[in-house]
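Please, structure for the following, as tokens.
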Amino acid sequence: MQEFSTNLVNELGNLPRPGVVPKFSDLEVIALNLTAENMSIDSENYLFALLEDYRNEMPNLISRRQYNDRRKYTADLCERIRKRIVECLDGSEDIFVIDSKPVKVCQLSRGKRNRMGMKEPEKAPDFGYCAAQSMYYYGYKLHAVCGVSGVIHSYDLTQASVHDIHYLNDVGQDFFKCTVI
């Protein structure tokens, strides 16, 4: 993890900030976060239940509340490290696949009453159709660009009504001189 965080954190593995230096470093929080994601653990409660067996090996392990706060604080750093890891894993691929997945916000019947994004209509959820699942839904669409080796190179969340072709136009500048399926 330290090789991917060069010039991003101090010698103790923390983002520079005033106050007491935490015993459980920011890099350890990010490593724990990335490990949980890799293991498909999306519940902090379940993660910390699993970590109870390793309390002796991790004497400075923080509480679940502290982990949640520090994970939010280090989100930008985590994303920068994730991009550096992807660059390292990238095998100079020239074939990429774009796919999307529906992200439901609420049931269709409640869509008209939903107040999310009223101040910013371009970020508000919308009605969409997923042909793969033959369903209408209210929410967003998660788009991802993945290389042949399985590394996700780009992802974005759009309104459900945005067609995949429009997302292809958005990422086209990043993936030129290659085949995008």
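The chain has two domains: 2-89, 95-180. The mean pLDDT is 84.
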